[in-house]
Design a protein that fits this description.
The protein contains ten helices and 13 strands. The strands form three sheets. Strands 8-11-9-10-12 form a five-stranded mixed β-barrel. Strands 2-3 form a two-stranded antiparallel sheet. A two-stranded antiparallel sheet has the order 7-13. It has one domain (6-278): Spore Coat Polysaccharide Biosynthesis Protein SpsA, Chain A. It has 279 residues and is α/β, with parallel strands linked by helices. The protein has helices at residues 37-47, 62-67, 72-78, 88-96, 110-116, 118-121, 142-153, 214-219, 231-239, 259-278, and strands spanning 6-10, 31-32, 35-36, 52-57, 98-103, 126-129, 133-136, 156-162, 172-180, 183-191, 202-210, 244-248, 252-255.
Length: 279
């Protein structure tokens, strides 16, 4: 099956940078104004034509399932009032998508989280969105841009952006050969390299399209940095066969995994989206 139908959301992390609020609240439910991070991710996946949302959760993440479900008591309480408009978007999501969930019992890295989602994905290509990378675009969403590329190249694709070289230690970093404008055939991929040894300043962000053989590769990928199973190591196996592209997406990313990036995204959304919608 070549058509991408499903999007995997790794959402089992602890969100320690936002303690104490994430002690009892999933970081994916942190709101940008009045909508949680993960809902923006689901909406981006829908805009790319995907309808199967597969979420890898963990302990204390029940709010994610409740959010993408009908609250009959709430619906009854606000029926016929001017509050109903606020549920319009989430109602559309619930009616348009299917949601499936599985739990990641141990936190062993992004690669392990993706492997945990295998039972929800099956033998088909799929997308991955990390909800704390919030992206805004003027036209097509980042994932829609990548799906279009996948339809042409039929291989794994990672989204990248240029970062200050002194920040390479925070990201997976690629080096590659220019395939087309903004598109690289990956030949090297390193997880969180020190600036002095980083192969470039092109960093991977939380948008991926993966071919289903990635699951077998992950199963056979030994733990890497910090004793975790790294998706970059598994992708490097594919890259050695020329089967990974890196795409400099059109748009802007906010790192909502950090407090600074989260506040920037909140201010942006309030100024550019929420106030206009209310008006």
């Amino acid at each position: 099956m070549d058509k991408i139908r499903k999007c995997l959301f790794p959402a089992a992390g602890y969100g320690t940078r936002f303690l104490p609020v994430t002690k009892s609240m999933p970081k994916e439910m942190l709101p940008l104004v009045n909508k949680p991070l993960i809902q923006y991710g689901v909406e981006e996946a829908m805009a790319a034509g995907l309808s199967g949302m597969a979420i890898v959760t963990g302990r204390g993440k029940r709010a994610l399932e409740d959010h993408f479900d009908i609250s009959y008591e709430l619906e009854h309480q606000i029926a016929g009032t001017d509050k109903e408009w606020a549920l319009k978007d989430i109602r559309h999501i619930i009616n348009s998508c299917t949601f499936s969930y599985t739990r990641q019992i141990e936190m062993k890295g992004l690669g392990h989280a993706i492997l945990t989602g295998e039972s929800l994905i099956g033998e088909e290509p799929f997308a991955v969105i990390l909800a704390d990378d919030y992206c805004v675009t003027d036209d097509s969403g980042v994932l829609a841009q990548m799906v279009k590329l996948y339809e042409q190249y039929r291989c794994s694709i990672v989204a990248i952006e240029e970062i200050p070289r002194e920040e390479t230690y925070k990201y997976g970093v690629i080096a590659g050969d220019l395939e087309a404008e903004g598109l690289y055939r990956v030949r090297e991929m390193v997880e969180k390299p020190a600036p002095e040894v980083a192969p470039s300043n092109l960093a991977i962000i939380g948008r991926y399209i993966l071919t289903p053989d990635i699951f077998d590769i992950l199963r056979n990928t030994p733990p890497g940095r910090n004793g975790e199973i790294q998706i970059t190591d598994a992708l490097m196996t594919q890259a050695k066969m020329g089967r990974v592209l890196a795409y400099r997406f059109k748009g802007r990313r906010f790192d909502c995994g950090s407090i600074e990036g989260f506040m920037e995204a909140s201010n942006y959304n309030y100024t550019h989206l929420y106030r206009k919608h209310k008006a």
